[in-house]
Amino acid sequence: MTRGWRIEIKKYPKLTEIGSRRAETVIGNYHDRTPQQYDNTPYGGYYTQDEIREVVKYAADRYITVVPEIEMPGHAMAALASYPELGCEPALGYTVQGTRGVFRNVYCPSETTFNFLEDVLTEVMGLFPSKYIHIGGDEAPKDVWKQSKFCQQLIKKLKLKDEHGLQSYFIQRIEKFVNSKGRSIIGWDEILEGGLAPNATVMSWRGEQGGIAAAQQNHDVIMTPAAMVYT
Q1: What is the H or E stretch that residue 136 is in?
Q2: Average pLDDT over residues 86-104
């Protein structure tokens, strides 16, 4: 997925002022060229909230439910570029990337971040009547958390086993908030790592095993193995 924040959030205008724009885009598919080459062409754009309402209504009139996805704690470069204080290394600076892939920078599990995500999800839930809200949870490297004094202290404070436990804490906290609004979360199968959130539905994309494991824990599962999704 190429980078960019694509939905207007009224409380956080920098998400679209900064996060919806990237300086360039990788040419071709991810592995087409080594090293990667870029088009040197700025790209940007996002859906306004009124446009989202139009899309949701258009789909609903055709008996289709649109399920929004707000990625966390990884795939967050556009948000971090907009609000660096959401990361564990804000002094280093963040930019919206022009290529797909996995990046080491993820949200820092601070109160600032949780307040931000709750505000964002509140606006998103106001636009999408779907029972389900997708929160991602996939491809979140733990390098920054391992090096972060704040994260290591939080792991000790919460008596967690490791950084996977910290991601589980992150997802479970978000789930409690989403559940409090009468909605349910969907997450990619990485949310199994460190302990599954109590009411989560799992989308198994790295094969079938994650879905099987979630089903064995009496969770709803959507089987979307990569070979089926990306071909």
Answers
A1: strand 132-136
A2: 89
pTM above 0.90, yes or no: yes
Average per-residue pLDDT in the chain? Answer: 93
Residue type, 190: E
Q: What's the rounded Cα separation, in Å, for the pair 97 and 16?
A: 15
Cα–Cα distance measured from residue 192 to residue 222, given in angstroms and rounded to the nearest whole number? 14
**CB distance 142 to 167 below 8 Å:** yes
Question: Cα(3)–Cα(23) distance, rounded to whole angstroms?
Answer: 10
Between vectors from CA 20 to CA 2 and to CA 143, what angle results, nearest 5°? 55
CA distance 105 to 102: 9
Task: Specify whether the CB–CB gap between 17 and 7 falls below 8 A.
Answer: no
Which range, 88-97, 117-126, 215-224, is most confident? Answer: 117-126
